[in-house]
Specification:
Blueprint: H1 14-29, H2 31-39, H3 53-66, H4 71-79, H5 91-99, H6 105-118, H7 142-153, H8 170-177
Bound molecules: fe (ii) ion.
Length: 193
């Protein structure tokens, strides 16, 4: 039996959840591959920018790596815009949610807020306050988020930059997503004796 038999959760049994859990563990272990597959959906349309979002993502990660950033930060840089195609008006939340189970909460905060912080460089063109990020000046992730945006993200639109290929980052992505989500393995327990 490879599928649960219930038609509603209130009828489910331990055996059902043991089956589901086995499927889930395999699904969970394959998340790095699916994330990388989705990242590649950002290839193609530049949406008017000098490079497409895929090149921009690789270039942001390249700049972070070449600046000596730690591996977790590099992966955050690679994936920071992965939500662009599904949530163009709220993309930072998508990347933050994908990364949250695996990264330092301050790095999750950095990715969640990078859209606002990056706005320092363009919000004025929309009649918005470019200094909006200053509301977070006392936050412990303020400095890293400014660095992320100012040194790597906002500079990563150069078609002539020596951007590293995805292959350089794949092992890093695999190592990050091999971490235990939220530091705790959730599995179906044996039924009480
Ligand atoms: Fe970006």
């Amino acid at each position: 039996m490879n599928q649960a038999r219930f038609t509603r959760f209130e009828e489910s049994t331990h055996a059902d959840w043991a089956i589901i859990d086995a499927h889930f563990q395999r699904y969970q272990n394959d998340v790095a591959r699916r994330v990388l597959e989705h990242l590649q959906r950002l290839r193609g349309d530049t949406h008017g920018y000098p490079v497409d979002r895929y090149t921009h993502s690789l270039q942001t990660a390249t700049r972070a790596l070449d600046a000596g950033a730690d591996e977790e930060t590099v992966v955050c840089a690679l994936l920071h815009d992965i939500g662009d195609d599904l949530a163009p008006a709220n993309h930072a939340e998508i990347a933050a949610a994908i990364l949250a189970p695996y990264v330092d909460p301050l790095n999750m905060w950095m990715i969640r807020h990078h859209e606002l912080f990056q706005g320092y460089h363009y919000r004025a063109f929309y009649g918005l306050d470019p200094q909006a990020r200053e509301a977070y000046r006392d936050h412990p992730a303020y400095a890293r988020t400014v660095r992320f945006c100012d040194e790597w993200d906002q500079r990563a639109f150069d078609p002539d930059y020596p951007t590293r290929p995805l292959e350089d980052f794949v092992p890093m992505v695999e190592r990050l997503f091999a971490r235990t989500p939220f530091g705790e393995t959730l599995t179906v327990k044996a039924p009480d004796a």
